[in-house]
Amino acid sequence: MLDSLVTSKTRIKLLLKFFAHANSGYLRSLAKEFDESTNSVRVELNRLTDAGLLLAENEGKTKVYKANSKHPFYEEIKAMVSKFLGLDDLMERIVKRMGEVQMAYIIGDYAKGIDSGTIEMVLIGKDLDREYLEFIKEKTYEKVQRKVNVSILENDPGDIQGILVFGK
């Protein structure tokens, strides 16, 4: 889907990261999160910044990137990413009803920009409502025609390979 419009897998990951939610990130953390070289991430960050889609702000010696909400195509890109993920409604419901969700990651094919038909997520939090999760997974399938697999962890192991869509 997105990979037919955008040829760079790294650029797709960056668009998903920054336009799925109000995320921000810096070069080294993004490279680690995407399991990509800092150079390939830097090239795409520069392209997206030059196009005005991302803003870069200095925090000390670190340059932090985030989506430019004032860009003319911001809402369209955000809607396209949201539709690609099919998770905007799911994330909102999970965060409101599941309990103390600390972080949510999209992993697997969707994190790589590939629409395989199965969305894989990792939720991190304590005492999450697993019954509600089963209910919302079925509703999501009815709505977006994609299977949702969710793993729940109480603590962040620190090595999850995917896109952080909720939390810090």
From TrEMBL:
<dbReference type="InterPro" id="IPR036390">
    <property type="entry name" value="WH_DNA-bd_sf"/>
</dbReference>
<protein>
    <submittedName>
        <fullName>Winged helix-turn-helix domain-containing protein</fullName>
    </submittedName>
</protein>
<dbReference type="InterPro" id="IPR011991">
    <property type="entry name" value="ArsR-like_HTH"/>
</dbReference>
<dbReference type="InterPro" id="IPR036388">
    <property type="entry name" value="WH-like_DNA-bd_sf"/>
</dbReference>
